[in-house]
Amino acid sequence: MTPSPKTTAPVAARRSTLNAEEMRALIRAAKRYDVLFATLGLLALAIGILTLAALFTGMALDGIPRLNSEFFTNFPSRRAGQAGILSAWVGSLLVMTVTALIAVPVGIAGAIYLEEYARKNWVTDVIEINITNLAGVPSIVYGLLALGLFVYTFGLGQSILSAGLTLALLILPIVIVTTREALRAIPQHIREAAYGCGASQWQVVSHHLVPYGMPGILTGVIIGMARAIGETAPIITIGALTFIAFLPPAPFMGDPPAGLFDWAFSGFTVMPIQIFNWTSRPDPAFHQNAAAASFVLVFMTVGMNALAIWLRYRLRKNIKW
Amino acid sequence: QIVKIDGSSTVYPITEGIAEDFQKAKKNAVKVTVGISGTGGGFKKFCRGETDIQNASRPILAKEMEDCRAAGVEYIELPVAFDALTVVMNPRNTFLKSITVEELKKIWEPAAQGKITRWNQVNPAWPDAPIKLFGAGSDSGTFDYFTEAINGKAKSSRGDYTASEDDNVLVQGVSQDVNAIGYFGYAYYAENQSRLKALAVAEKAGKPAVLPSEASVLDGSYQPLSRPIFIYVSAKALARGEVREFADFYLKNAAKIAKEVKYVPLPAKAYSLAAEHLAKGKKGTVFGGKNEVGLKIEELLAREARM
Amino acid sequence: MDKHLSTQFDAELSGVSTRVLEMGGLVEAQVAQALYALAHSSGETAAQVIAAEGRVNQMEVDIDADLSAIIARRQPTARDLRLLIAISKTIGNLERVGDEAARIARTVQHLLNTGVFGRLRLPVSDLEFEAQLAVASLRKALDAFARLDVNQAVEIIKQDNQIDAEFDGLMRKLITYMMEDPRTISASIDLIFMAKAIERVGDHAKNLAEQIIYVVKGTDVRHNPVEAVESIATRRS
Amino acid sequence: MDKHLSTQFDAELSGVSTRVLEMGGLVEAQVAQALYALAHSSGETAAQVIAAEGRVNQMEVDIDADLSAIIARRQPTARDLRLLIAISKTIGNLERVGDEAARIARTVQHLLNTGVFGRLRLPVSDLEFEAQLAVASLRKALDAFARLDVNQAVEIIKQDNQIDAEFDGLMRKLITYMMEDPRTISASIDLIFMAKAIERVGDHAKNLAEQIIYVVKGTDVRHNPVEAVESIATRRS
Amino acid sequence: MSSTTAAPAPILGSTGEARLAELALAKARRKRRERAIEAVLLLAACVSVFTTVGIVYILLKESLAFFSHVSVWDFITDDQWTPLFEDAHFGIRVLLAGTLSSSGVALLIAIPLGTIIAIYLSEFAGHRTRETLKPILELLSGVPTIIYGYFALLFVTPMLQRLMPELPGFNVLSAGLVMGIMIIPYVSSLSEDAMRAVPMSLREGSYAMGATRLQTAVKVVVPAAFSGIASAYILGISRAVGETMILAVAAGMQPNLTLDPTEPAATITSFIVQVALGDLPHGSVGYQTIFAAGLTLMMLTLSFNMLGYWMRRKFREAY
Amino acid sequence: MTTSTITLPNNPPPLKAEAKALDFYYGAFKALKGISMPVYENRVTALIGPSGCGKSTFLRCFNRMHDLYPGHRYDGTIQLLPDAVNLLDHQVDPIEVRMRISMVFQKPNPFPKTIFENVAYGLRVRGERNRTYIEDKVEAALKGGALWEEVRDRLDESAVNLSGGQQQRLCIARALATDPEIILFDEPTSALDPIATGSIEELVTELKKKVTILIVTHNMQQAARVSDYVAYMYLGELIEYGATRDIFMKPLRKETEDYITGRFG
Amino acid sequence: MTTSTITLPNNPPPLKAEAKALDFYYGAFKALKGISMPVYENRVTALIGPSGCGKSTFLRCFNRMHDLYPGHRYDGTIQLLPDAVNLLDHQVDPIEVRMRISMVFQKPNPFPKTIFENVAYGLRVRGERNRTYIEDKVEAALKGGALWEEVRDRLDESAVNLSGGQQQRLCIARALATDPEIILFDEPTSALDPIATGSIEELVTELKKKVTILIVTHNMQQAARVSDYVAYMYLGELIEYGATRDIFMKPLRKETEDYITGRFG
Lengths: 321, 307, 237, 237, 319, 265, 265
Ligand SMILES: Nc1ncnc2c1ncn2[C@@H]1O[C@H](COP(=O)(O)OP(=O)(O)OP(=O)(O)O)[C@@H](O)[C@H]1O
Ligand SMILES: Nc1ncnc2c1ncn2[C@@H]1O[C@H](COP(=O)(O)OP(=O)(O)OP(=O)(O)O)[C@@H](O)[C@H]1O
Ligand SMILES: [Mg+2]
Ligand SMILES: [Mg+2]
Ligand SMILES: O=P([O-])([O-])[O-]
Fold this sequence. Notes:
CATH superfamily of chain F: P-loop containing nucleotide triphosphate hydrolases
Pfam families (chains C, D): PhoU (PF01895)
Shape of chain F: globular
Helix content of chain F: 25-40%
Radius of gyration of chain B: 20 Å
Strand content of chain F: 25-35%
Function (chains C, D): Plays a role in the regulation of phosphate uptake.
Bound molecules: adenosine-5'-triphosphate, magnesium ion, phosphate ion
Number of domains of chain F: 1
Main location (chains C, D): cytoplasm
Protein name (chains C, D): Phosphate-specific transport system accessory protein PhoU
Oligomer: heteroheptamer
Family (chains C, D): Belongs to the PhoU family.
Strand order of the largest sheet of chain F: 1-11-10-4-9-8-7
Number of strands of chain F: 11
Largest sheet of chain B: 6 strands, mixed
Mean pLDDT of chain F: 90
Largest sheet of chain F: 7 strands, mixed
Mean pLDDT of chain B: 85
Number of strands of chain B: 14
Strand content of chain B: 15-25%
Distance between the termini of chain B: 31 Å
Strand order of the largest sheet of chain B: 2-1-3-13-4-14
């Protein structure tokens, strides 16, 4: 390169442009770090993914032999070979239903209030800190709360409803935070456009913000649910059952109106409790059951995560600003 | 028609087996649920009248009796099996053949905390190797029982040991460490004999060291570490046919199931006595709100009979 | 010409072009009338021509105002800008044509007032021929302007010589007249100025033609010899 | 005038203004030289004047090109645009002043060639007075233009009458001459045309002045009576 | 306009005052409806507040009972934690130490690895790689923690023991490591989101200066995304501090006043879960300890969150 | 405070609105200072001025957009004619105002819904349910927005897939669908390329046949091109108001001239 | 394929770069088609054309910005003079190219660092450590970016707090700090208000004394104002290249004229 003295500033006696050789050396050196870091990144990823793989293979090796149809259709039994997870997965399903039915509307509504209605002042700040803080409260504490509140104070007993409510509270912060995030990601000009058309605040919310925020909201809900489905401690605290050799009444099939919700007041067990119980049994055959059940549970979360990703992808396609 | 049971996880396997068979026998006409809130958590519910039957790995305590009284819950105490707390070591351990209560105390008493850390401090015959301790969590009935039996005072124990609610965890711990010693329920030992070795316990120096086994428990020679476990049946619930039926069924089948899940059944006499109590509706506890150790079966039966 | 994205701009441009043509028509008529007044010694017609001057002036001012408004509002470039610039020059020329017409008309009035027409024999018909050439040139120029016809523009420029030649001939003739009859001096001078005015009309027509070439070809051909202009105008861009 | 954000634009504007003044200086000199040639019968000077015409023409074309480039590139509005438009008109006027000077010079050459100066007594000095007025007017106008001085512009417009009056006087005088001595007719007509040219220079100076008022006041004052112009020019905006 | 449209009243009709009155009426009507909706939403927003209030109430109520038995001073200064023993000591420091060392280990894994992964995914990996690996990695946070517990105990600990034969079967290290791996996606996903959100124009600005990927990532993207990354860290910390089952299973539950991660230790959470599921009679002092411990934990996480909130405020970069 | 130089036309068209002594506050910050200005019916009035001078603020007073954010305050009036209601009156529901006065924003902001639903939105908000009526209106509005030909066959496609210029015309159609009396444009072309800009400008001049238009633009040339009247604002004050042609050829105030000629800085 | 109309100046300044038969592909899409064009030293060359015609694509070839994204392909060459390196050569490291050719983007994109660090960034990337040298360079660059006076007292404040126009000048200073041979500007003022735009334009004309400039703008007036040469592109092709004055007064190609005069659409 030419050493043409182009800079007029006297300070730049030395041009910062290096000669070609120097520059190439410099670039080579800098690029070495790139490669180094990329290796490091892959390594870090590998640690995570290998862990996951180890977990999976471990579970699979132990559990897959147990994964036959009876495993899914049998109730628990003292004989490991006959024990199944019927009551557990049905229970999990029902509890998740309650959780979703509570957490989704309440979480979205709360988030809407905080994001769209509430004045931005210290109260909102406090609520905000409060919510992030709730996200860090150990789940067992929710169990303690739920025991006092739902089981005893509200007299809901050790029911699917109590459990659903507890988990709903547990994931509420997640739903609220992600919903707020989703709402915040909707540009202000969309709101202004809607208001500009003469929409009222509620119309803006219901016609625009919620539908457009849906991908984010759903992701949050599903992530929350995935967390809830694996929770053990709070549900044990409120008194989930371990042995339950029958299913709750079929949802919404009883005699209306009261009968419709019989199921919600039924006793139940859920997957993690079944697993927890089986792992703590002395007979190693049960440990196999636990591995199999864990495998099922992890697959349920995987399924939910996949659903979240798919939904996010599907719904986002037509929403851009 | 539901029979609700909750409480100890120790008793759970027996109750579960009973419930399973009972439901089958009743062709699912009666539903039985069993929870594992722990003896304490279970009693809370039981004394509020929320459960029909309580699994308990220890007798009801004064505080809980009071709660029950306050709520007007009366109960019938039914011992259903023995659990032999088993002192275990690593199978590769070569120097431990047996141990005396004395020595156990030396290891486990509060004063040992931080001091007794090597085997030769307990018994000079033993090598100069670190002691690795594993024991029940301090919130469990097992812990209470063991401390009372060994250290003479419930809940009086050194604190620097690995505790776990989950006995499998302890099994794991002991099986991994040559210098380990630990204690937990017999069933865990029984299921893991390949990985653990039970340690014969001598009640006193000079007395013969006894290994835990059905026979040694039944004949009362495994002392002081065998303890009875119970169910408490709510008197009010007993009025319901299915609960009574279940309780009867329980006592009838307890021996079989207990064996099956590796507990030590009570002598047949004990079950018939219990059945009698049940039939008569004899309420209350024979323990006066305290845990007791070293209770032999005969004594228990005697007390029961006195009720 | 193709349409702009902005119909408003199109409308403004065509509006101003129309007004230019209108102005052109007006001054063309003025010149014709002035010559009529001269040929027919019509004081009335002369007066009309003079009266029209105000209108022409006003048109110049108005169109100029429009032009600057369009420039200010539309930021024209290239052909649009050249058109506006050409129009600006064109209306200046037209206004001056109007001036020449008025000058002729005023001279006619002057001659009528002094009664010269009755008394003297003047070569008015010679003037007429020059005038016809000039008016034809002007008309052609306006026509070419309306169609932005470069070929016609070149023709006009080529023909400008003719008018100049006519003027020179007329001059010589008039000088002879004056020499012959000194009483005609004053009137002849008037005639000379009229002839000059007519010659100027031709010049203006030529200027217009040059502007047309500028609009279409983008080259300013003023002050160039005819041949150069022709070659520029016929060059394919 | 205040600075633009764009120094380039400022430079372009002042560049074009400078060139206008330069052109003005050139044509002013041309006029002066032409008159010198006339007064001193200097064929040489006359030739110089004629030679300069090409330069003036070129300047007009160049400045015009600059103007359109500035308009195309800078999107000027308001005062800037008015200035550019005024310059466009001004250089047209200046070019015509140059033409008049050349015309005078050519006539001087013609007179010299025909040897008239030697043979005849012509009222060249009268012409000189008119010429002085006109040149003064032009100089003043250029000066006012440089400073965008409205007051001076008004003065120039007011003084245009004087030149016109001079021209009329001269005309009458020349006609007398011609009548007296028909031999002078041809030369006198030449003189008349020269006088007319000088009068036109005055007109152009006046036009310049009008443009100054346009730039500063934003009002097109052409074709208005002097009083109206004065009132517009002195109105406080 | 067709007659079918409800709203805007004809333009003409009434003017001035009269029109104003009409408009006021319409406004009042609309206001009422909107108010009702707002009230419902507010109620929903308050659920989380109620939850906190409930938690705090329960924790405080029982803690107060607890502190009537145990002095706060002892609670803070005692260096033994044996609340359920005959010779009861209530030195929360012991549990805090466990919590800190386990969180420390976890964060020492999760924060660097999470950050590196985030940078790698956001700045180095191709679109495909990112879109496949990120969700896979996120699965790590979806695995029930009890499974991790056993993984730590049965897989990681023996592995570590091969490297460190002295390592006890229960130790904070292995639990912490696994916990760290579990937390990685919390850190990496959120950080990656934050880095994604950094406008491409900023990156292009850096590359255009001749920067390499790493230079761009470290000098431009990370600082620009710092507030988001900090949130991710805070969440990771909260998660680490609040994690229960892994520690309950694998860390040994041994209340040791030590920060040495190769030792077994008990943490606040594992203590709580242990006691809450145990045999203690409710209402006993022993049982109440879990509330005091829970309160301590909550204060701990609260202070982290406040810190995080303050940091986000301070470092929120506009771009 | 400076007084404004307001040149009213000799033969004024009917008034559509009129601001009188309008002050506006963002909290304690006075963003508009005593603005008085006419808005003529079926004319385009452009607001120009340097960034931050309050153009948008002024514009957004006309549909009470400020009401969406806390801490604002209006003083003075904006009369909407002919019914002479003060838009800023507390009694007047901003929603009512917005139904009568539409707005088109800087960035095209179609809703991520179908093209049809975007245009129909204003009608839906008004509770309109008659399907054929809505369809007719949508078609008319899209025609008014010079978009009908381009989208007639894909009314059910998502609006976000349109090009920027089309999106902005869609937003205009959306604003038109409810027959507003005034349309407010806030820098409607600043996000568009010159060709899209040209078509929007063309549309604006087309629209004024039917509706009164107020447009904020930071592009002086654009103001010059599209507007009939121009208001030059500076630091929250109205400096000069007059016919566009006059403002751009011969503004009366030196401030205006300096801004227009690029002498500001 | 159309052939380009290229009018080279009579007395050409030295060449700084020259594109020859440049094709560019985004995947299978050919975005640039056989572009050949000179870039003269110390001159401003503007690229204009309708949206999507490939202006930015062409510009970004000069600093190999496309290399950041997968699926691109260059055909043809861009010679950088005087050393006659083909910038697009696979052997040439894009980082090296970028060190020699700076770029300023559409939206001001200061790094969220201090003003000083922003300007020093390029030096730091080059591994420069000498503090006084860096300080001198930063000062010189800020002076070159006409920002020194405004920020000299707050070099340690965050750059994101500057106004848009200042940010853009900062980005220019950042680009200047490393003494680039060419600076590429991609619509550098489209996010700015007219006054800030004016000052950037002024700066660009100032800068060309020291450095060669290539600027993309969708504002034809801007191209007219700042550039010495203009290239009009359409659908990936170079339609016409010539001196700015000629292009804007008298383009040779009808396509160019139509675009410039607003007849495109
Ligand atoms: N929400 C707000 N809170 C406080 N001040 C504000 C707010 N919005 C605008 N301002 C201030 O009010 C003044 C006017 O702002 P406005 O947005 O109306 O300017 P503008 O003329 O539209 O500028 P631009 O051309 O940049 O859009 C500015 O000084 C601005 O800083
Ligand atoms: N990353 C990309 N992948 C595929 N095609 C692209 C990509 N970027 C641009 N294009 C296409 O290449 C063509 C040229 O784009 P480019 O951005 O260079 O246009 P431009 O002239 O700069 O337009 P604008 O004025 O809108 O910035 C367009 O057709 C565009 O759609
Ligand atoms: Mg604005
Ligand atoms: Mg581009
Ligand atoms: O659960 P336990 O009561 O048996 O310890």
